[in-house]
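4.2 Preliminary Data

To establish feasibility before requesting continued support, the project team ran the inverse folding procedure on a target of 221 residues. The structure was first converted into the token representation described in Section 3, and no sequence information of any kind was made available to the design step. The complete token record follows.
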């Protein structure tokens, strides 16, 4: 049971016994120090030791390279990590990589499904969420996120193509806002976390998965 597990002080996810880093957010752990036993509430700060420690992020799309690559920066422009796409794979596959080459997790696009589906895995290869898209929608796009058991945990409200939308909980509580309000670069956009009900890693993965599909749709691929 989760109540008997230890939790990451940065993102609140359950920890693997004797782990030195959180498998969900990459935070370095102080072995022997008891972490909090509950998920951080909306008025608590996200741990400073995590790679994704803040609430504001800039996503730079398609950095020039041999593969599709995203750069993840903080609001001051400091590079936190890359999201790189595997050149040859059965379905789109991305992985998160820090500046020192440490992998934080992966996103796997599933092609043998009835709808666009992306599975999000943590640093230990465990499935933490799935992102899915409704096939037919007259206006805009409908995307949602499920936990490993198939329960809906988040949904978008707004325009994905224009990078102007909100990620909301099933109860309509705003979790994060995606926009270009304070981003000047043409192929970049911002993520502002409003409520840490989900780890930043999952939110960023959610956004990357949607952007990959919608970018190809706009290009007619």
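Position-by-position output of the design step:
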């Amino acid at each position: 049971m989760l109540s008997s597990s230890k939790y990451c002080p940065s993102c609140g996810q359950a920890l693997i016994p004797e782990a030195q880093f959180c498998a969900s957010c990459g935070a370095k752990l102080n072995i022997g120090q008891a972490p909090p036993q509950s998920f951080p509430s909306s008025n608590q700060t996200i741990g400073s030791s995590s790679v994704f420690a803040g609430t504001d992020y800039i996503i730079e799309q398609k950095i020039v390279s041999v593969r599709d690559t995203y750069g993840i920066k903080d609001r001051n422009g400091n590079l936190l990590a890359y999201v790189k796409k595997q050149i040859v794979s059965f379905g789109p596959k991305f992985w998160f990589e820090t500046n020192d080459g440490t992998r934080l997790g992966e996103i796997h696009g599933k092609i043998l499904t009835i709808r666009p589906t992306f599975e999000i895995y943590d640093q230990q290869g465990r499935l933490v969420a799935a992102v899915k898209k409704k096939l037919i929608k007259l206006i805009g796009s409908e995307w949602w996120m499920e936990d490993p058991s198939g329960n809906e945990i988040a949904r978008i409200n707004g325009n994905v193509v224009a990078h102007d939308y909100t990620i909301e909980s099933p109860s309509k509580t705003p979790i994060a806002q995606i926009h270009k309000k304070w981003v000047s670069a043409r192929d970049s956009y911002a993520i502002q976390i409003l409520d840490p009900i989900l780890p930043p890693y999952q939110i960023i993965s959610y956004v990357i998965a949607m952007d990959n599909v919608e970018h190809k749709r706009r290009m007619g691929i």
